[in-house]
Request: fold
Amino acid sequence: MVLGTQCRSTQILLTLILCLLIGILWKLIPHPAVAIAIGLFPIAILFTLHQPFLIVLLFVIFSFFRIHEVFPQLYDLKIPLLLSIASLGALSWHIGLTQKIKAWWCPELSAMSVFFGLVLLGTLMASNIPIAIEYFKNIYWKIIVMTFAIAWLASTAQDFSLASKLITFSGMLVGLVALSNKINGIGLVEETRVTIGRNIGSVLGDPNDLALVLMLPVAFAISLVMTDSMGRFTKFFGLFSMLVLFFAIIATQSRGGLLGIMAIFGVYGYRRIQSKALFFSFAGIAAIALFVLADISGRASGGAAETGIDASSMGRLYAWEAAYGMALHNPFSGVGINNFYANYFSYSPHWDGRNHAVHSTWFGVLAETGFLGLIVFVTAIVMLVKTSLRSLYRIEQNLNQVDPAIHATAQAVLAGLLGTVVSATFLTQGFTWPIYILAALVIAIARWVNLHLPPIPVTKSPPHNINPNR
Reply:
């Protein structure tokens, strides 16, 4: 009885405070939207606390796909900022107070944590500390937190289904805008290469970065098509998204992007085509056709108009040479995160009047974290690939016990991870979202598999070609 009276007193007090707040704001800003916003605020808090994974996922999607830059009408709403506050609030509430989110550990998280520690150390020892700290506090610490958040929060088939479909849908939206820009000649670089938001300084204003953003959802779109028991609508959605993403990447004319989607399609093809001679023959023909379709030879840089080794390729070679020089002078810490561009002049023997980006994940990590950072980074990637293979093998040995959404996500993260590794030669993604999103999902799926499926018998080891007939 006393407890009920206390609850009613608390409700009355909160109602009075809410009415008082609405009254004060109405006096300052006499607009109905103010009262509506204040009234919805408690509902928003309850929703955030009830759906922490969705909030975290939306924050990652807005941060990675730059939805507010793809659709500039959303820019002034500060949606990423609001989602970041909501995500951190929900995580703090459930980890620190309710303990509904259980923090657990695994070898892959250990490897990732060591790399995070090396990046932080390199930030404090960077050649240009303000540049390094700016990138770390604006972007990279969020990537670190969300890697753990996704790994710990994704635990059910509904979570994996939501992640696969939201990533695919977001990629499709970006792809549709990219194709629209290509058709209408908006923001084209070198007259032929499509971009998004170049006029507002968006990250997607670089065709290579746009290709990187479009490449991740390709793996998830294909998995929705190729996985059994996904439903007709889901398969159609996956097929439509896959086609949009494919042609959007073609429109970027990014060699790294083309290598990435070839690797992603190759993973699915290798596992399903029993004749490997047929597979490699088809892959070779497809690669040539893809190169012709993308019209790489028609690019202003790196096209057929340039004789010998083209300027684009030479620029990369010079950048990689500079990256090696940076690591050689700073073997344990590198020059610091986001410091390659600022140090290019000091380490490149081929100065053409301006600094250049590294255009390689491996050389970027080498330059900015040193030889030690690259070793740890590569070790973490190898561990993730092996974990993904083991998880997929166990899932496909027990398909009758596994929800199709988990099977689809497991296929997608393996293909996406291998596609990322292949495209890493030409795309700079060591300190951007894709690798960490995939890493978190690989770890989350492995956790689900370990909790719900029988272990692999010690006498058996998962083959490289996992159930090609699946």
The CA atoms of residues 6 and 59 lie 37 Å apart. Residues 106-452 form one domain.
